[in-house]
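To fix ideas, we reproduce below one chain and its tokenised fold.
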Amino acid sequence: MFLNLKTQLENPKNAKAVKEFENALTKLITDYNTTVYANRFIVGDAVEILLCALIRAVGMKCEISNQERTDLYIQIPNGPGGMFSVKSNFTGSGAIRLINVMGSSEETTWSEPTIFLIAGKGIYYADPYMSVSVKRTGDAITVNIKDIGKVKDEFKFTNIRIPEKPDNPRSAMSPAYDVVKSILGSIKSKKLIRNV
């Protein structure tokens, strides 16, 4: 599945869609810097929505999943499909949490095919059957960025710019303001909207 996606992303006819995706990610991570803890889940969801939009724009089927450990259903046109987890890292180093295991069983393992968006490196694919080294910490199952980088070239799409988050989190916005403004707009607020 990832090989089909990679082929579509590399196709010159899809260059504009790839560029829009890059620009959207840059705007997202600049405006909603994940150094601010409250932004992390919102940015994660937004990354999934943007990636799904990119996948659709290059001619494949993609749906947002509401399952606990998978994020996207991706399908080749008139072909097979599958569920994928999506993880992102906007520093380009360190570890990525595959699973938060707080309160989960000791037997919990990484079992989902995963698409990784890694700053400064690109989009990668890995799954538990690829001998990618994972580590269980006290509250998570993680994978190091260096280990993801060791996957074979056919599982990497490096001709895409995944941005690094800015150093200055003080410039980060809170998505709560956008939610509040949307709610106040939908109820046709007259008083509160002027005071947000």
Q: What stands out?
A: The chain has a mean pLDDT of 89. The first strand starts at residue 61 and ends at 64. Residues 130 and 192 are 53 Å apart (CA to CA). Helices lie at 2-10, 15-31, 40-57, 145-148, 175-186.
